[in-house]
Model the fold of this input.
Amino acid sequence: MSSTTWTSTGSTNWYSGGNWSGGVPTVSTSGTETVVVSGAVASQPTISPLVNGAPGTFTVEVNGFVIKETQLDGQFITLTTGADLTLQGLALGNYRGTSGDTAPGGTISNLTDVNGTLASYDTHMLISATGSDKLVSNDINENFGEILAGAGDTLSISVTPGGNPQSIQAFLNYGLIEATSGGVITVGTAVTTSGTASVFANPGWIEAIGGTFETTAFIADDANVPNGAGTPDGYIEIGGTNGTAELLGGAAAKEDVLFLGGGSNDQLVLANNNSFQGSISGFSSGDSILLTGASGTPTLSYAGSLLTVGEVNGGGTVTQTVTLDVGSGHGLQNYQATTSSSGIIITEVPCFAAGTRILTPDGDRLVQDLRAGDDVLVVRKQGDAVQKIIWTGSRTVNLTRHARPEKVVPVRILAGALGAGLPERDLVLSPDHCLFIDGHLIEAKTLVNGATVIQDVFARTVTYHHIETEAHEIVLAEGVPVETYLDAGNRQMFEGGAYDVLHPVFAAKSRENAAAELVLDGPVVHAARQRLLNRALALGFAPTASIDLTVKAGLERLRPEASSLPEKLIFVLPRPVTEVALLSSIGIPAHVSANPADNRRLGVAIRAVTLVADGKRVAIALDDPAHEGFYDMEPAQRWTNGAARLALPAFAGRATLEIQTNGQAARWAAPRKPAVAWA
Done:
């Protein structure tokens, strides 16, 4: 892989060879040249098709506009601290990763919107930030590749007039804009010389995976060929842990905010003015929506697919409402709203599953039998006490209709998982219901290990119940200390539209009034999870990393030849096929680790694949975009998801497929005979 670094001290011309340590970066549809733009250099580069040395232009047709541009591709551009790169009429990469579309004199037309939730982009074109950097968009530019900011890095994208002014100034994202692991990407627009606003459009994918994406611009959708009714034209995806999308300028109706799940503390931030016209899907436990600028007491209503958030002033008048399309199949009882210093926060409600036994002065009672006025035992530092229940509520969730069922599927803690007799029977909670462990509150989903703490993925419906005491307390459920309901002012939201309350307290409370501190990660969580792992081993569970990879060619399921080694599996393909499926068991790293962070569903780590056919050995590139069901490339390997599709070149007759692996993901084997009693 070649490399070149920007070194100019006067000229800003990207296409001048004297401005580079290794010559002008090469445009290629298949290569990946390393290009470094240093922020320490006095003159920062501008890429324009109008300067000396620029390659020929091609035509892009977008909604009736005919745009002359040039291409940048086959380049991994790293911006170092302080870099300021200006784009003036470019296509970054090839449209949807296809080659040849942007040859000089050619035309790109009929640009389509997203083709699914999985980002599809040109993997040979990347702009990444290192430190704090700027990307300026003059004229009209399209991103067909990837723009990235990772841990500790910030990239500011500014869509402003400049260069060769056209009738519109726009940055159109058909590829991927991604903020990961603490990275921040901001997008701003400025008014053009004609007085119209510059355009930022997303007919592609924006992802905040543990990072933050922020924009005060309205997110438009400017593809030539929109998707059909009911199908989003662009995705803004939030996931990881602390993934945040701040869409303060609003978004078009067919932009969909998708909460991906698998993390915690993911948040969508919107202005309190109905500028967001898009839809929201996957919202569930652990996620939140913040309406900035709201300060009144919140009210909620839900009809069809619309959640309406009202703001009530001191006189009891609703002064502002915001309507959010959260999809159908939910219920008002799914949501709660609180007021904070930042605005109104919308979350889901934690709860007990029906059948859970709660300890009272009269012994264990089923949670569904408890009523306001009943006594329960509470656990306090200074000693156990008796408190009255002031409110109870319930809801039934149809898991088959939920947009992201894995986020509301109940967590089952097996009897004895926490120690002898803890819990006394299986304890079933909603994913975000907290257990009281080591003086802290830990959500049930954070403890999932796939062995003794699991999610009931085969459940079709679940009925959850809530009990509230005067203060947020710790009670014993199946002998395990867990939290009671934390009042968020939503008691009117439960089934039947009424509530049973002994001493109504309608003021919304916050986590500041919780019985203990909530921890999502760190030493307390790791220690608790390690004890769970140790207990699982003692109960007879055992991890395995044995390789069980098979290949499906057409309708035939093929097992490796007897001569295969674990690190090199040989499969005989009896007839020509254009692709094969790589099938295996999956393992989730977090399930066998004290660290809950990595929830990928991993199959086999593929090191190399060789097709032996027609008297030749052909190496199969693991980064071929035609493959499906693979995670991103890592050094010397690429993980499957347990059901990957591997594209093959054409061949005749019988062939052999050699697959070299770095092993398979660890997962739990069936329990052997327990070494100790379960309870």
In short: The chain has a mean pLDDT of 85.
